[in-house]
Design brief:
Blueprint: H1 19-25, H2 27-30, H3 35-48, H4 52-80, H5 87-90, H6 94-99, H7 125-148, H8 153-178, E1 199-202, E2 226-229, E3 236-237, E4 244-245
Parallel strand pairs: 1-2
Antiparallel strand pairs: 3-4
Helix pairs in contact: 1-4, 3-4, 3-7, 4-8, 7-8
The structure holds manganese (II) ion (2 copies).
Residues 38, 65, 136, 139, 165-166, 169 line the site of one manganese (II) ion.
Length: 261
C-alpha cells in the first residue's frame, strides 16, 4: 500500500525561476529516463518478483523513485510557473503554458506523453536487474547534463541529491545481481551453441578515410575467441558438400553457419 507523507524527501528551493530550464527538467518527470519510468519499472518488476529478498529491494527503490518524482515535479513546477502569465516564459513550453496553465504534466521536454513503452520488464529477475542498472546509469547522466545547464544554487542542490541517489541505487542493483551468484553470461536456461558463441565476426574491415582503425581487444581476441575475418565475403557454399567456401574457393573453418548437419 502507498501512503503520502506531506513532506518532500529533500527540500526544494528555487532562487530564480527559469522556464526554459523547467522545460528541460520535464525529462526527469515524464521522460524516458525519468523518475516515473524508474518508479513504475521497479514496482512492476517487484510485483512480478518471486524472490522475496530482491522483491523487497525492488519495492523499496520503486517507492523511493516516487518520492523523487515528487521532488522533480515540485522543482519543475517552480521553474515553469511564470509561463502561465508571461509571454516570454510561455514560449519556453507552450504546451505547459497554454494547456497546463503553467502546471506540469507527464510529458518530456518535447511534449511527448509519458508511455509504458519506456519500461523494461522481462519477468526474469537477473535480466530485469541488468535493465535497472542501465536505467540508473541513464538517470545519473541525465541529471548531470541538467546540472550543466543551470547555475541556480537551490536547483543544483536538489539535483545533486537526486543524482547521488541514482548511484546508490545502481550500487544496490549491482550487488543484488552479483549476490544471485549467476555467471556473467548465463541468461535463461538454454545454453548457447558451443563454437558459434566464441566467434567474433569482423564485419567492418580495413581502415576508414579518416583513419578509423580495425581494432583487436579483449572483446575479440584472447581466451576462447575465434576471430572470423569478413564473413560476408566468405559466404560461398560448395554445391557438393554444402560447406562454406572462402572467397578464394577453399574450404574454411569458422564463419557463420546456418542450419543443422
Ligand atoms: Mn530517482
Ligand atoms: Mn534510482
Amino acid at each position: 500500500m502507498y501512503h503520502h507523507v506531506k513532506q518532500l524527501m529533500y527540500t526544494v528551493r528555487v532562487d530564480t525561476p527559469d522556464p526554459r530550464f523547467g522545460n528541460m527538467l520535464l525529462e526527469q518527470f515524464g521522460g524516458a529516463n525519468g523518475e516515473l519510468a524508474a518508479a513504475m519499472q521497479y514496482s512492476v518488476q517487484g510485483i512480478n518478483c518471486e524472490d522475496p529478498e530482491r522483491k523487497d529491494l525492488l519495492m523499496d527503490i520503486g517507492t523511493e523513485e516516487l518520492s523523487h518524482l515528487e521532488i522533480i515535479g515540485v522543482l519543475a513546477r517552480m521553474h515553469l510557473r511564470p509561463s502561465k502569465s508571461k509571454r516570454t516564459a510561455a514560449e519556453a513550453d507552450p504546451l505547459i503554458a497554454i494547456v497546463g496553465g503553467g502546471g506540469i504534466n507527464l510529458y518530456n521536454s518535447m511534449g511527448s506523453p509519458w508511455t509504458a513503452d519506456y519500461l523494461k520488464v522481462t519477468g526474469e529477475l537477473d535480466v530485469d536487474l541488468r535493465n535497472d542498472i542501465a536505467a540508473e546509469a541513464r538517470a545519473k547522466i541525465t541529471y548531470e547534463r541538467l546540472m550543466n545547464f543551470s547555475d541556480d544554487a537551490g536547483t543544483l542542490d536538489a539535483l545533486q541529491f537526486l543524482m547521488t541517489r541514482e548511484i546508490t541505487h545502481m550500487k544496490a542493483f549491482s550487488l543484488a545481481l552479483e549476490s544471485m551468484g549467476k555467471p556473467m553470461l548465463s541468461i535463461g536456461l538454454i545454453p548457447p551453441t558451443p563454437g558459434i558463441v566464441d566467434q567474433y565476426f569482423n564485419d567492418s574491415t580495413g581502415e576508414g578515410d579518416r583513419g578509423e582503425p580495425d581494432v583487436r581487444g579483449p572483446w575479440n581476441q584472447g581466451g576462447s575467441w575465434e576471430f572470423v575475418e569478413a564473413p560476408a565475403f566468405q559466404a560461398f557454399r560448395s554445391p557438393e558438400t554444402g560447406e562454406r567456401m572462402s572467397a578464394e574457393g577453399g574450404k574454411r573453418n569458422g564463419g557463420p553457419r546456418k542450419g543443422h548437419s
